[in-house]
Amino acid sequence: MTRLATDELTGGILYELPPEAGDTTQPRFEPDEQWLRSAAPELQKTAIWRWFATRYEEIDAATPRDAYGNYFLGVKDAPVRVDAVLIGRFGEWFPREP
């Protein structure tokens, strides 16, 4: 069984976001900025990962491969670096840890 990135971020614990975190029923989750800044670290991680996961897919699970194990990548969207996307979106609020 593959561990999802959220398992690693939150120590395998599933955290439910409270209503004040933002509208979790939308196809693309957008966290409430004021709530996000004051939330507990594990809820911040959960909300940020939800933001990412509603916009991108994990390449291993979502992309077909050929007989040699090479990915069939479409020309529309290239793979992205998770850290670059998250730093670009949330980096001003949460500086990188040393």
Brief digest:
The protein is mainly α and 98 residues long. Helix content is 38%, strand content 0%.
What does this structure look like?
With 98 residues, the protein is mostly helical. The chain contains 5 helices and no strands. The protein has helices at 5-9, 33-38, 41-53, 59-62, 82-90. The longest helix has 13 residues, at 41-53. It is elongated, with a radius of gyration of 15 Å. 9% of the residues are buried. The model has no long low-confidence stretch (mean pLDDT 79).
Tell me how many strands there are.
0
Largest sheet: none
Count of alpha/pi helices: 5
Given the C-alpha coordinates, what overall shape results?
Answer: elongated
| Uncertain stretches of 5 or more adjacent residues | none
Could you say which structural class the secondary elements and strand pairing correspond to? mainly alpha
Distance between the termini: 31 Å
pLDDT averaged residue by residue:
79
Share of helix among residues?
Answer: 25-40%
The radius of gyration over CA amounts to 15 Å
Estimate the strand proportion: under 5%
Please write the string of helix (H) and strand (E) elements.
Answer: HHHHH
List the helices and strands and how they pair.
Layout: H1 5-9, H2 33-38, H3 41-53, H4 59-62, H5 82-90
